[in-house]
Amino acid sequence: MRVAIYGAGAMGTVLGAFIxxxxxxxxxxxxxxxxxxxxxxxxxxxxxxxxxxxxxxALLPEEMEGRYDIIFLMTKQRHNAEIxxxxxxxxxxxxxxxxxxxxxxxxxxxxxxxxxRCCGCAVSWGDVGxxxxxxxxxxxxxxxxxxxxxx
Length: 151
Description:
The protein is an alpha/beta fold and 151 residues long. The chain has helices spanning 10-21, 33-42, 80-87, 106-113; strands at 3-6, 27-29, 44-48, 52-54, 57-59, 68-73, 91-99, 118-120, 126-128, 133-136. It has a single domain (3-136), classed as 3-Layer(aba) Sandwich (Rossmann fold).
Protein backbone atom coordinates (compact mmCIF):
# COMPACT_ATOMS: atom_id res chain seq x y z
CA MET A 1 0.00 0.00 0.00
CA ARG A 2 1.35 3.44 -0.92
CA VAL A 3 0.59 6.28 1.46
CA ALA A 4 1.34 10.01 1.21
CA ILE A 5 0.90 12.97 3.51
CA TYR A 6 0.32 16.00 1.31
CA GLY A 7 1.00 19.19 3.24
CA ALA A 8 3.62 17.70 5.54
CA GLY A 9 4.22 20.71 7.75
CA ALA A 10 4.35 20.41 11.52
CA MET A 11 1.41 18.06 12.05
CA GLY A 12 2.08 16.08 8.88
CA THR A 13 5.69 15.59 9.92
CA VAL A 14 4.62 14.30 13.33
CA LEU A 15 2.05 11.93 11.78
CA GLY A 16 4.55 10.72 9.18
CA ALA A 17 7.26 10.21 11.80
CA PHE A 18 4.95 8.08 13.97
CA ILE A 19 3.80 6.03 10.97
CA UNK A 20 7.41 5.46 9.92
CA UNK A 21 8.62 4.74 13.47
CA UNK A 22 5.97 2.03 13.75
CA UNK A 23 6.98 0.29 10.53
CA UNK A 24 4.79 2.03 7.95
CA UNK A 25 5.96 3.58 4.72
CA UNK A 26 4.75 7.06 3.86
CA UNK A 27 5.92 9.91 1.63
CA UNK A 28 5.88 13.34 3.31
CA UNK A 29 5.13 15.92 0.63
CA UNK A 30 5.44 19.67 1.08
CA UNK A 31 6.25 22.74 -1.03
CA UNK A 32 8.69 23.92 1.66
CA UNK A 33 12.09 23.18 0.09
CA UNK A 34 14.03 23.90 3.29
CA UNK A 35 11.82 21.50 5.26
CA UNK A 36 12.26 18.75 2.64
CA UNK A 37 16.04 19.29 2.70
CA UNK A 38 16.12 19.11 6.52
CA UNK A 39 13.97 15.96 6.56
CA UNK A 40 16.20 14.31 3.97
CA UNK A 41 19.38 15.27 5.79
CA UNK A 42 18.46 14.59 9.41
CA UNK A 43 15.12 12.76 9.39
CA UNK A 44 12.03 13.87 11.26
CA UNK A 45 12.81 14.94 14.82
CA UNK A 46 9.73 14.83 17.04
CA UNK A 47 9.87 16.45 20.46
CA UNK A 48 7.34 17.31 23.13
CA UNK A 49 5.80 14.42 25.05
CA UNK A 50 8.30 12.21 23.18
CA UNK A 51 11.74 12.75 21.68
CA UNK A 52 12.84 10.70 18.69
CA UNK A 53 14.28 11.09 15.23
CA UNK A 54 13.40 8.80 12.35
CA UNK A 55 14.51 8.81 8.69
CA UNK A 56 11.56 9.66 6.43
CA UNK A 57 10.81 9.91 2.73
CA ALA A 58 10.35 13.63 1.93
CA LEU A 59 9.34 15.00 -1.47
CA LEU A 60 8.44 18.22 -3.18
CA PRO A 61 5.13 18.03 -5.10
CA GLU A 62 6.94 18.10 -8.45
CA GLU A 63 8.88 14.97 -7.39
CA MET A 64 5.77 12.83 -6.90
CA GLU A 65 5.55 9.70 -9.04
CA GLY A 66 3.16 6.78 -9.25
CA ARG A 67 -0.15 6.41 -7.49
CA TYR A 68 -1.15 6.30 -3.84
CA ASP A 69 -3.78 4.23 -2.04
CA ILE A 70 -4.20 6.82 0.73
CA ILE A 71 -3.37 10.51 0.57
CA PHE A 72 -3.72 12.37 3.85
CA LEU A 73 -4.63 15.95 2.96
CA MET A 74 -3.05 18.23 5.56
CA THR A 75 -3.16 21.61 3.83
CA LYS A 76 -5.37 24.61 4.47
CA GLN A 77 -8.82 24.32 2.84
CA ARG A 78 -8.64 27.54 0.84
CA HIS A 79 -6.72 25.84 -2.00
CA ASN A 80 -8.47 22.44 -1.94
CA ALA A 81 -9.89 22.60 -5.46
CA GLU A 82 -6.53 23.23 -7.15
CA ILE A 83 -4.65 20.84 -4.82
CA UNK A 84 -7.15 18.03 -5.41
CA UNK A 85 -7.02 18.59 -9.18
CA UNK A 86 -3.23 18.20 -8.88
CA UNK A 87 -3.51 15.08 -6.68
CA UNK A 88 -6.15 13.18 -8.70
CA UNK A 89 -3.64 11.64 -11.16
CA UNK A 90 -1.65 10.34 -8.17
CA UNK A 91 -4.66 8.63 -6.53
CA UNK A 92 -5.00 4.91 -7.30
CA UNK A 93 -8.30 3.60 -8.70
CA UNK A 94 -9.40 2.33 -5.27
CA UNK A 95 -7.56 5.07 -3.36
CA UNK A 96 -8.94 7.56 -0.85
CA UNK A 97 -8.20 11.11 0.19
CA UNK A 98 -8.34 11.37 3.96
CA UNK A 99 -8.66 14.99 5.01
CA UNK A 100 -7.35 16.05 8.39
CA UNK A 101 -8.32 19.66 7.86
CA UNK A 102 -10.16 21.89 10.33
CA UNK A 103 -13.93 22.10 9.95
CA UNK A 104 -15.92 19.82 7.68
CA UNK A 105 -14.14 19.83 4.32
CA UNK A 106 -15.32 16.36 3.28
CA UNK A 107 -18.32 17.49 1.17
CA UNK A 108 -16.16 19.78 -0.97
CA UNK A 109 -13.39 17.17 -1.23
CA UNK A 110 -15.96 14.55 -2.24
CA UNK A 111 -17.19 16.86 -5.02
CA UNK A 112 -13.75 16.51 -6.63
CA UNK A 113 -12.70 12.93 -5.79
CA UNK A 114 -16.11 11.27 -5.27
CA UNK A 115 -17.89 10.28 -2.06
CA UNK A 116 -16.50 6.76 -2.09
CA ARG A 117 -12.94 8.14 -2.25
CA CYS A 118 -13.18 10.62 0.62
CA CYS A 119 -12.94 10.24 4.38
CA GLY A 120 -11.89 12.47 7.24
CA CYS A 121 -10.20 12.19 10.59
CA ALA A 122 -9.20 14.56 13.37
CA VAL A 123 -5.56 15.13 14.30
CA SER A 124 -4.73 17.69 16.98
CA TRP A 125 -1.46 16.88 18.62
CA GLY A 126 1.38 18.67 16.88
CA ASP A 127 2.85 22.06 16.08
CA VAL A 128 5.87 23.66 14.49
CA GLY A 129 9.23 22.68 15.90
CA UNK A 130 11.42 24.10 13.10
CA UNK A 131 12.70 22.76 9.77
CA UNK A 132 12.69 18.96 9.88
CA UNK A 133 11.03 19.01 13.28
CA UNK A 134 7.59 18.62 14.76
CA UNK A 135 6.39 18.91 18.35
CA UNK A 136 3.98 16.31 19.69
CA UNK A 137 1.67 17.30 22.53
CA UNK A 138 -0.56 14.27 23.00
CA UNK A 139 0.34 11.48 20.58
CA UNK A 140 -2.44 8.91 20.46
CA UNK A 141 -1.96 5.45 21.89
CA UNK A 142 -4.11 4.16 19.00
CA UNK A 143 -5.15 5.74 15.77
CA UNK A 144 -7.80 4.92 13.23
CA UNK A 145 -9.59 6.44 10.29
CA UNK A 146 -13.32 6.88 10.02
CA UNK A 147 -15.60 9.37 8.34
CA UNK A 148 -16.46 12.37 10.52
CA UNK A 149 -19.97 12.45 9.11
CA UNK A 150 -22.07 10.86 6.44
CA UNK A 151 -21.72 12.62 3.12
